[in-house]
Specification:
The structure is a single chain. By secondary structure, this protein is α/β, with parallel strands linked by helices. Helices cover 32% and strands 24% of the residues. The protein contains 14 helices and 24 strands. The strands form six sheets. The protein has a four-stranded mixed sheet. Strands 2-15-17-16 form a four-stranded mixed sheet, covered by helices on one side. Strands 4-5-3-14 form a four-stranded mixed sheet, with helices on one face. The longest helix has 14 residues.
Length: 417
């Protein structure tokens, strides 16, 4: 297993250019199944999740090539209707392939994400949405079977907001007969990017970015060329790195509307953030100010995918911060690792924790627990005194392209072994 070795206390500063968003490229890759033709996608990040999705597409008959930052996917000969359990276990978000596959094929089979049962965190919304579109669903031996004669447009009312379920509903409804109306849809920028990609293929979708999406089904989709939006979570992570280490950061091609939920919180923490025509600049605070209370919530609220990174920032603040995680369970697994580095963190419940700022962090041996939790450890290590060894970095590589090279270009003392 690879590790990061980081010697802290170097300023993270310079110019940053981030490629496409992990949370946008994966549903867009799934959507390529629907056009039965060629899809050319630019600004694609070189991350492990992209390669898992490539293998999924190849396993059902797609031809895929990936060079530089461009994917070319030919879905004209999709000839297999099952997704191997191996892929679903590696990447839970591979469940978004389901909507596109049932839009293309009459019957499909896919394992439960992570091996969990129906009703557990939460694919029930995905399945209910497909049932609304005239899909019959059965569960047997850990496998979900979906079958339909044809897809029928309908009203889909989500009882709670879900990015993945919204994406699956959109993908399945694109070729359904008639009109599909999605209520309480997720509003994340990646949903809007999926809409724009599908519309570029000839779909008729409007409303993405709001809580109501309307889709008029079409018979055929066409060849497409498209560029993915920048990764707001990766940008936010590097912004925190600069804030924690006292560096000035310039970010190219950041989209203001996407970044504001993150940058507004960083401004409250003392950062000076200015938007330019091409991106943004961050000037770090002399002393990190406390954010008294931080609650994650769906867009345009503060994203759950930035919660652990902001927690690292608050470990060096001048007071106490209460974190309230509302989106996912098990989002505080990184806390015990941060504590090893000198952080003062107390878990109050499984969804609430209290962080009291300390003067400094210290290096040590820690383990990445998940993608964003692992990123929080990298941030802590960059600001810590001494050397930090971070193991299980395969979690981090799922979502950050060449993290050690990017950080090294910005002044970090980091190596991968």
């Amino acid at each position: 297993m690879s590790k990061y070795i980081i010697n802290g206390c170097n300023k993270i500063e310079g110019t940053l250019r981030i490629r496409g968003a992990k949370n946008a490229i994966l549903p867009i890759m799934a959507a390529t199944i629907l056009n039965e033709s060629i899809s050319i996608i630019h600004n694609v990040p070189c991350i492990s999740d992209v390669f898992v999705m490539i293998r999924i597409l190849e396993s059902i008959g797609c031809k895929v090539s990936y060079s530089e930052d461009t994917l070319i996917i030919d879905s004209s000969n999709v000839n297999f209707n099952k997704i191997d359990e191996e892929y679903v276990r590696k990447m839970r978000s591979s469940i978004i392939i389901m909507g596109a596959m049932i839009g293309r094929l009459e019957c499909i089979e896919i394992s439960h994400p992570g091996g969990c049962a129906i009703g557990a965190r939460p694919i029930d919304l995905h399945l209910k949405a497909l049932e609304c579109l005239n899909v019959k669903i059965e569960e047997h031996d850990g496998v979900i079977s979906c079958c339909r004669q044809y897809l029928e447009g309908n009203e889909i009312r989500f009882e709670r907001t879900s990015v993945g379920a919204t994406e699956n509903a959109m993908l399945a409804a694109v070729k359904a007969r008639g009109i599909t109306k999605i209520y309480n849809a997720a509003k994340e920028p990646e949903i809007e990017d999926l809409q724009n990609f599908l519309n570029a293929m000839g779909a008729k979708i409007k409303g993405a970015g709001t809580d109501y999406i309307e889709i008029e089904g079409v018979d055929k989709l066409d060849k497409v060329e498209y560029s993915v939006i920048p990764d707001r979570i990766a940008i936010g992570t590097y912004m925190v790195a600069s804030a924690m280490t006292g560096g000035r950061l310039e970010v190219e091609k950041a989209i203001r509307a996407h970044m504001e939920p993150i940058s507004n919180v960083l401004t409250n923490a003392g950062c000076n953030i200015n938007y330019t025509e091409s991106g943004l600049t961050l000037i770090p605070p002399k002393k990190i100010k406390t954010i008294d209370f931080l609650k994650t919530s769906p867009h345009p609220g503060f994203p759950t995918d930035m919660q652990s990174q902001l927690m690292s920032l608050m470990t060096l603040s001048d007071g106490i911060t209460i974190f309230f995680e509302t989106i996912f369970e098990n989002r505080f697994m990184h806390c015990k690792e941060l504590i090893k580095m000198g952080a003062d963190i107390k878990l109050l419940t499984d969804k609430i924790c209290m962080v009291t700022g300390v003067e400094s962090l210290c290096g040590g041996k820690v383990k990445s627990t998940d993608l964003r939790g692992g990123a929080s450890l990298v941030l802590a290590a960059l600001a810590a005194e001494g050397e930090t060894e971070i193991s299980d970095i395969y979690h981090i590589e799922r979502g950050y392209e060449n993290l050690e090279e990017v950080l090294r270009s910005l002044g970090a003392d980091i190596r991968r072994i």
